[in-house]
């Protein structure tokens, strides 16, 4: 399977769209339930390298760290095929 630029861009837009929908649905469910104990965090990339991250909880930070490593490895693997 050869990935073209159009296909990769469409896949990226689709993933971003799904993420936005998940955030909206999660916000609405929290609003309806009345319980809100929110944990969150972020990780920053420059190129394929995860450079910084922060989170409100240690467990969330480790999850984000793992996601950063997975994205880094996937970017190295996919770089061969693009």
Structure description:
The structure is a single chain. The chain is α+β, with helices and mostly antiparallel strands. A hairpin with a 2-residue loop joins strand 1 (41-46) and strand 2 (49-55). The protein is flat, with a radius of gyration of 16 Å. Strands 1-2 form a two-stranded antiparallel ribbon. It folds into two domains: 1-37; 39-82. It is built from two helices and two strands, in the order αββα. The protein has helices spanning 5-33, 58-81; strands at residues 41-46, 49-55. The longest helix is centred in the first third of the chain and has 29 residues, at 5-33.
List the helices and strands and how they pair.
Elements: H1 5-33, E1 41-46, E2 49-55, H2 58-81
Antiparallel strand pairs: 1-2
Give descriptors for this structure:
two-stranded antiparallel sheet; 2 strands; flat; alpha+beta; 82 residues; 2 helices; 2 domains; single chain
Q: What structural class do you assign from the helix and strand content?
A: alpha+beta
- Estimate the helix proportion, in percent: 55-70%
Alpha-carbon Rg, integer:
16 Å
| Beta-strand residue fraction | 15-25%
Q: What's the end-to-end separation, in Å? A: 11 Å
Biggest sheet, strands in spatial order? 1-2
Count of individual beta strands? 2
Shape type = flat
N-to-C SSE string, H for helix and E for strand = HEEH
Mean pLDDT figure: 85
Q: What's the number of domains?
A: 2
The stretches of 5 or more residues where confidence is low (pLDDT under 50) are: none
Give me the number of helical elements.
Answer: 2
Largest sheet: 2 strands, antiparallel
